Amino acid sequence: MMLSASPNTLAKSSLEEMLESLRQKDERQQQPPPDIPPALPSRPNSRARLPSARRSLPANFSVSSVIDDQNHNGSVASKQPEPEKKDEGKRKEKDLRVKRKSFGSKKMRTGLCSESPYAAEKEEEEEVVKVTAAKVSPVEEQKPEWNDNVEYFIKKKLRVWCRVANGQWQLGKIQSTAADTSLVMLSTANVVEVSTEELFPANPDILEGVEDLIQLSYLNEPSVLYNLRVRYSQDVIYSRAGPVLIAVNPFKNVDIYGNYFISAYQEKAVDAPHVYAVADAAYDEMMREEKNQSIIISGESGAGKTETAKFAMQYLAALGGGSCGVEYEILKTTCILEAFGNAKTSRNANSSRFGKLIEIHFSAMGKICGAKLETFLLEKSRVVQLCNGERSYHIFYEFCAGASPVLKERLKLKTASEYTYLNQSDCLTIDRVDDAQKFRKLLEAFDIVQIPKEHQERVFALLAAVLWLGNVSFRVTDNENHVEVVADEAVTNAAMLMGCNSEELKVVLSTRKLQAGTDCISKKLTLRQATNMRDGIAKFIYASLFDWLVEQINIALEVGKSLTGRSISILDIYGFESFKNNSFEQFCINYANERLQQHFNRHLFKLEQEEYEEDGIDWTKVEFVDNQECLDLIEKKPIGLLTLLDEESNFPKATDLTFANKLKQHLKTNSCFKGERGRAFRVNHYAGEVLYDTNGFLEKNRDPLPADLINLLSSCDCQLLKLFSTKMRGKSQKPLMLSDSTNQTVGTKFKGQLFKLMNKLENTSPHFIRCIKPNSKQLPRVYEEDLVLQQLRCCGVLEVVRISRSGYPTRLTHQEFAGRYGFLLSDKKVSQDPLSVSIAVLKQYLVHPEMYQVGYTKLYLRTGQIGVFEDRRKKVLQGVLGIQKHLRGRLSREYFQNMRNGALVLQSYVRGENARRMFDTKAKIHAESVSEARIGEFTAVINLQSVVRGWLARKRFNSMQRQKELLDVTTKSTRKAGRKVSEDKDLPLEQFQVQPSAMSDLQKRVLKSEEALVQKAEENTALREQLRQFEERWSEYDIKMKSMEETWQKQMSSLQMSLAAARKSLATENNPGQAGGRQDASMSPFGYDSEDTMSTGTPGVRTPTNKFSNGNTPELRIRELNGSLNAVNHLAREFDQRRLNFDEDARAIVEVKGGPQATPNGQQPQHPEDEFRRLKLRFETWKKDYKSRLRETKARLHSDKGRHRKWWGKRG
After folding, report:
1. What pLDDT does residue 438 have?
2. Is the peptide bond before 638 cis (omega within 30 degrees of 0)?
3. Catalytic residue at 302?
4. 3-state DSSP call for residue 592?
């Protein structure tokens, strides 16, 4: 609720605000709500801002200074003249001794101004008068008045928050009040006496654990803390604070991620606070408004920024995933960057020691087409120096634990405990983290991001070289502490891995060349200088390697020609840090967080409220803590902290102590700076006060790299080292530390990177995620209220909720609103200018006047109102599309039917004409080709017809002839009967009378004859059917017998062939090729008839005459062979005889016609199938016997053959 009051009006406590809201709500309910929009402000003649219709109500003031005036004037003071109000504001500012930004009035800026990344707006910006406190406790902001309200709270028994002795907030109910104290009964039934100023109203139970802090009825610190604690205890880690997402680190795995939840948020089925919801909103706004978006993730170290960024990238990859697979490469880049850029600190096991901005580009269709990565200020000192309990970068431990044995042997790699850079902190492992498994995942990520294997080998070689450089030791050689390098395996392995000579490396590490005119002098280094040189080489190699990896990733993710200008940037930068010993790195990190906080304030407080006032909106300003004074302390010229650091860095004889003294001398007037003894100083940051030690500030800011080292690296065989030295050539400091004004220091370079980052973020629509660290021990379900409250105050959550609750997050120009929603207007008589159309649309949909305001150029809507218009617009457009769909469908169908009918008609004519032409062509061809064949066919038809007609004529003639013969017979019988009648005509009539009994007997006989005829007809039918069945069965039998006959013929042929083969084999053996030999007529068929025949051997073959095996003579051998031949001939004759017999029997069975035949002896008839079966059985029996005798004959022949061969094989 907004209240108008003069500046001297006293601030009210939250309880009093609650009562006022209840009373005014009752008054509004009694009055009918207005149904017309508020009157438009008059349009000014120029763009100059008109004074606001309301004055801001100060949130902080001194009650004691105006207590008498309060009692006299009541809760609302009368309006005072303008001079008195100015004096009153100055007096309050002086009493509080602190300042807070306000936008009540503006003056021209005077004095020196600090640098700003928003250069385009700097010239038009006016100085804002600081009227209230910046660092006032929230307790001082709300000092309740109980004069008439205590009785109301006691009567209503309203719960309140009160702070007990241990500093914790507890719920209770007011029992009584006296003066400035009250008795409160806590929820534990204990009654405590507390100051009335420390009481705050509590929200009802129904608002316990709400998703958005805007929904809280009473907004105060204990209510916000309690709401977050309730949700955190339920593992609900995300909450909203207006446009800001609050993410509380659970320090454990929570089941609220994955494909199921991604799909739910894509389909808008879930509206709960989530990092997916923020990424989805950024994507929708990018596609709808075609404007680049940014997701800015901030918070302390260990608050979960890196994990939140990974979840946001995971959702965008799923939302914009395409066919090219670049989204998978983007996700895998986090694995590489975490390995090379994250380390374990005392507060976080996976702390990002660099800042990164990943810019994901999308195509016009909303698909990811590439990405670009930017990094900021890698903490190089962590490579060579560690605090106790911390680790260096993860890659070193993963490399030592997961490298293959072959790779370890090639790179001379040992365990992590054997390297000085890693074992100096006594912390080599992290609980529940497998470094070897992480290394395997890193190799997979290298392959996915398309980093070649040879490049991976070079990267691992340089990592091993850095580790071996840390083991290089020195030996003091004289009293001046000069040193030389110890020649051991460390320097040898380091030189080998770097690709240089070990002697050259020793010279660079222990000496420095100075140019004195034309002469070059070599100077030995002290132990400290040599150690710094060694560490400088290691830091340079690692930092250059990290930058090179980022370049390779950008090459792999390059957008190319598909760049559309649509992108979503995710910023994950190191969180605010405050350790026991804070050095230059912590200073740069906290400076970056100050600049991001300014960006946060600028978008959520400054720009928004300024826009309200410039557009004439009736607005009560919300006060917020501004960190501009701290930024001026750091970057203001000419006496800013960075400027003084650069000045000292340019003096060769300057030390860290002289730098600290210079800071105390020039910055003591700034309220955010406080000098300490020695080299220390304090800076009051937005997140708290940090103590810095200037030890190492100058050296780290200079970041020197001697020319000797660059020359050594350029001469190395390692291609990466040559590349690194080429980039650094010309940037290193000259000999004797002579400064080159063209070289930028680390601080100035980092400042330029921050300004560039801010300019890039200014051109995007920001989405903020504030990560909260619930406890400092990194334990799950532990909620430290003081720690959480400090982080909430730093990020201004209460102010964000207040401005979101009373603000107008949705703002559209009148032209945009009328162009988008003007078609919803049903009244067409309204003037068509954008302003009138906008007001008419608001009036038509009965939007409550408190839900919007009309400015000079824009229309401002509260949260949720634009959704009503979007839903209505969507429904109307869907209806319009439905009507258009049906109408266009009907028109298309009619057009299609007409075109189809026309096409069918056209096709019918064309196809008919084509068919006729084709028929004529084929007819001509056919007539020419078949004219002769047609004459033959006609002749054959005529002959067939003549034969048929002749047969029909003969048949008719025969029928007529039989009828004529029958007629002749009938005529003759008639004539005989006539003669018999004439002979008997004289007989008496009584003789021709038929007796009735005879007639009945004749009729019975006729009936019996008819019945017999019917029965015979039925029998004939049955016989015909039986005959048909017999014919069918006979045809089946005939087919079977033919098949069996074929089988038998095949078997007989096989037997015949076997016999012929045996006969041929025997004939061949017994008739050895006699060339022209004679044969006598009396010779046996096989040529073994006589001794003389046997003695005539084959020419060229020696015939044995004296020696025979086994005592057999030629005569006996011939007789044995003749016996075998006779057996074979007998089998052949038997085979021929049996074949003839079986053929005759089978033919006889086949020729049998009709049914079963009777035997001559009157036995039962034999069926042909049975006869054939018996014949087959007889054949099988004979065949089996014949085969056995044939085998015996073959065996005898083979045995004779062997003996015959032995006999013929003899040699004389």
Report:
1. 94
2. yes
3. yes
4. helix
Residue of 306, 333, 582, 593 with catalytic role: 306
Give backbone dihedrals phi and psi of 984, rounded to 5 degrees, phi first: -100, 15
Encode burial over 669-690: b for 16+ CB neighbours within 10 A, e otherwise.
ebebbbeeeebebebbbbbeeb
Compute φ and ψ for 374, nearest 5 degrees. -125, 140
Sorted by sequence, the CB contacts under 8 Å of residue 761 that are 6+ apart come out as: 294, 296, 569, 571, 599
Output phi, psi for 971, to 5 deg.
-65, -45
User: Cα–Cα distance between 48 and 541 in angstroms, integer?
Assistant: 56
Active site residue 64: no
Task: Judge whether 301 counts as a catalytic residue.
Answer: yes
Backbone torsions φ then ψ of 506, nearest 5 degrees: -65, -40
* 21 classed as catalytic: no
The residue-averaged pLDDT of 707-722 equals 87
Contact of 278 with 312, CB cutoff 8 Å: yes
242 closest CA partner among 576, 622, 626, 759: 622
Who's near 798: CB < 8 A, 6+ residues apart? 138, 219, 220, 221, 224, 792
Tell me the C-alpha distance between 432 and 415, whole Å.
19
- Measured on CA atoms in the order 434, 436, 442, 447, is the torsion positive or negative? negative
> What's the 3-state SS for 769-814?
EEEECCCCCCCCCCCCHHHHHHHHHHCCHHHHHHHHHHCCCEEEEH
**How many CB atoms neighbour CB 326 within 10 A?**
22
> 89, 302, 536, 855: which is the annotated catalytic residue?
302
**DSSP state at residue 745:** P
Q: Which residues contact 283 (CB under 8 A, 6 or more apart)?
A: 293, 316, 319, 320, 366, 568
**352 tagged catalytic:** yes
Choosing from 149, 223, 294, 351, the catalytic residue is 351
Catalytic residue among 379, 484, 577, 635: 577
| Active-site pick, 89, 242, 370, 575 | 575
pTM: 0.61
CA–CA dist 2, 805 (Å, integer):
11
Express each pLDDT in 774-788 by its tens digit.
Answer: 998 889 999 999 899
Q: Which tokens sit at 851?
A: 């839900």
60, 177, 334, 352: the catalytic one is: 352
pLDDT for 372-426, tens place per residue? 999 988 888 899 999 889 999 999 999 999 999 999 999 999 999 999 999 999 8
Catalytic residue among 203, 223, 334, 348: 348
Q: How far apart are the first and last CA of the chain?
A: 142
Strand ranges, E, within 434-482: 474-476
Answer yes or no: are the C-beta atoms of 247 and 797 closer than 8 Å: no
List of residues 6+ apart from 684 with CB closer than 8 A: 135, 630, 671, 672, 673, 674
Contacts of 919 (CB under 8 A, 6+ apart): none
Catalytic hit among 301, 620, 670, 725: 301
